[in-house]
Specification:
By secondary structure, the chain is of the alpha+beta class. The chain has one domain: Gcn5-related N-acetyltransferase (GNAT) (Aminopeptidase). The protein contains 5 helices and 8 strands; from the N terminus they run E-E-H-H-E-E-E-H-E-H-E-E-H. A 5-stranded antiparallel beta sheet has the order 1-2-3-4-5, sandwiched between helices. Strand 7 and strand 8 form a beta hairpin. Helix 1 packs across helix 2. The structure holds coenzyme A.
């Protein structure tokens, strides 16, 4: 297991996850930002690329499962990505549509952001977001990221304007210590504090 949150576990994907992976990558609504759904061959190639990344780098997109189950409800993880001439450490997230709007993506991505700072020497964690992908931008903002770059990628025959969101190691430490302080402070407005 890679990480655990209040509701979720992250682990490496295996060939047994292929049916659940197809439920994500074959759904045209999930794949709008990727210019349409994937075929069986493209989904298998995607899985093999993650497995290659696990071997080569020790990380990649991982399976997200609920703590009380083992079905992959989404993928979230860390990959090396190019943004123009730079290579960056990126957090990525794609969830089955049935599991949107419950805060799972932000919960998993927060664990991945923290994992990247703890387990790799990176100074910053990025999120490359297509300029039309508002749900993804909201996850990046929830991670404490800000927009740093605007750039265009070429994928599946299309030029795609993107925004590069990022959080530095120092900013991430500030976000985490603020959260720890808020967690430790007495809660206002409870009967105990009146
Ligand atoms: C990007 C993506 C993962 C975001 O999923 P999401 O479900 O919108 O994001 P979250 O898990 O953070 O959920 C936030 C929503 O859950 C709600 N929510 C419910 N319970 C919550 C909780 N306990 N904590 C936080 N949010 C909660 C929030 O109010 C918010 O609702 P809203 O979407 O109606 O505003 C999803 O849209 C997706 O898979 N898209 C396709 C793939 C993709 O484009 N990936 C990004 C590539 S850059």
């Amino acid at each position: 297991m890679i990480a655990q949150t209040a509701r979720l576990r992250l682990r490496e994907m295996t060939d047994d996850d292929l049916p659940a992976l197809r439920r994500i990558l074959h759904d045209p609504q999930v794949m709008v930002a990727y210019e349409g759904s994937f075929s069986d061959e493209e989904s298998l190639a995607w899985l093999r690329r993650q497995q290659e990344r696990y071997r080569e780098h020790g990380f990649g997109l991982w399976a997200v499962v609920k703590r009380d189950g083992d079905e992959m409800i989404g993928q979230c993880g860390i990959t090396r990505q190019r943004i123009e001439d730079d290579e960056v450490t990126e957090v990525g997230y794609l969830f089955q549509r049935a599991h949107w709007h419950r805060g799972y993506a932000l919960e998993a991505a927060t664990a991945c952001r923290d994992w990247a700072f703890e387990e790799t020497g990176t100074d910053a964690v990025w999120a490359k977001v297509r300029s039309t992908n508002i749900a993804s931008m909201n996850v990046a903002i929830g991670l404490g990221m800000r927009v740093r770059r605007a750039f265009t990628t070429h994928y599946r025959g299309v030029d795609m304007p993107h925004l590069g969101f990022a959080i530095s190691r120092a900013e991430s430490e500030r976000v985490r210590s603020r959260r720890a302080l808020v967690g430790a402070a007495p809660r206002c407005g409870t009967s105990a504090s009146r």
